[in-house]
Amino acid sequence: MNPQDLLKLAVTVAEEAAALIVERRRGTITVADTKSTITDVVTAVDRESEELIRARVLQARPDDSFLGEEGDDVVGTSGVRWVVDPIDGTVNYLYDHPTYAVSIAVEVDGTTVAGVVVDAPKGEVFTATLGGGAFLDGKPIQASNCSELPQALVGTGFGYDPVRRQVQAEVVAHLIAKIRDIRRIGVGAIDLCYVACGRLDAVYERGLNPWDYGAGALIASEAGARVGGLHGEPVSPEMSIAAAPELFDTFHDLLAEADPLRA
Ligand code: IPD
Ligand code: CA
Ligand code: CA
């Protein structure tokens, strides 16, 4: 249960899945199904990637639990759980926008101890272990030193539910005049990794799931970013915020002011 050993397996499997999805992207990608709404799509490759990850992980560690976005949960006995998004950024993938990722977090007794996010088309590998720092392609990374809202480049995303999206757009309208700019990259896990390496100063999103933020939240916090929800809550599907340490409080307050219950 050494986090470094768990990370090693996570990286091997994530890289194999990333190679698979890039290879499949050379062919025709079609929507296999829709999920929560008509815009919430899944392709056959999302499922194939998750099946590959599940098979590799459970082959190596048959007593572990597994939570993937697309398949049934597996409940094991070891106390270790793998939390997996087999393609984060499926809409980018469908349209061949070259940013999409495989995200794997490993929890021990409910605490994330290792995480990897592979930006599949770029081949960038973001990793972290609890207490062990964060890395991009093996080199240590750090969140930015941004401390002022007008200098803050902020990432966010929109959920698939149209009512939630409308509100999320209103929150962006509240922020946009006070910050440097907004980026909607389309990959929640990459948003968090970009805060980790200073390519963004802050990110926030309501409605992310554990497979979206599990690995990225650890990577961001190990890179020195502050990570949390609103009003001192931990990150959850309710709200995930990650920001440069000097920026977090001011950014949090602006977001909370936008609408604490609906942002
Ligand atoms: C989505 C992406 C997107 C975020 C959505 C997620 P998916 O994940 O991370 O950036 O805004 O909330 O659902 O569906 O591409 O795995
Ligand atoms: Ca996702
Ligand atoms: Ca996904």
From TrEMBL:
One of its GO terms (biological process) is signal transduction. Coiled coil: none annotated. Pathway: Amino-acid biosynthesis; L-histidine biosynthesis; L-histidine from 5-phospho-alpha-D-ribose 1-diphosphate: step 8/9. Its cofactor is Mg(2+). Mg(2+) binds at residues 69, 85, 87-88, 212. Catalyzes the dephosphorylation of histidinol-phosphate to histidinol, the direct precursor of histidine. Belongs to the inositol monophosphatase superfamily. This is Inositol-1-monophosphatase. It comes from the Bacteria. GO terms for molecular function: histidinol-phosphatase activity; inositol monophosphate 1-phosphatase activity; metal ion binding. Gene3D superfamilies: 3.40.190.80, Fructose-1,6-Bisphosphatase, subunit A, domain 1. SUPFAM superfamilies: Carbohydrate phosphatase. The keyword Transport does not apply. Its EC number is 3.1.3.25. It catalyses: a myo-inositol phosphate + H2O = myo-inositol + phosphate; L-histidinol phosphate + H2O = L-histidinol + phosphate. The keyword Magnesium applies. CDD domains: IMPase. PROSITE patterns: IMP_1 (PS00629).
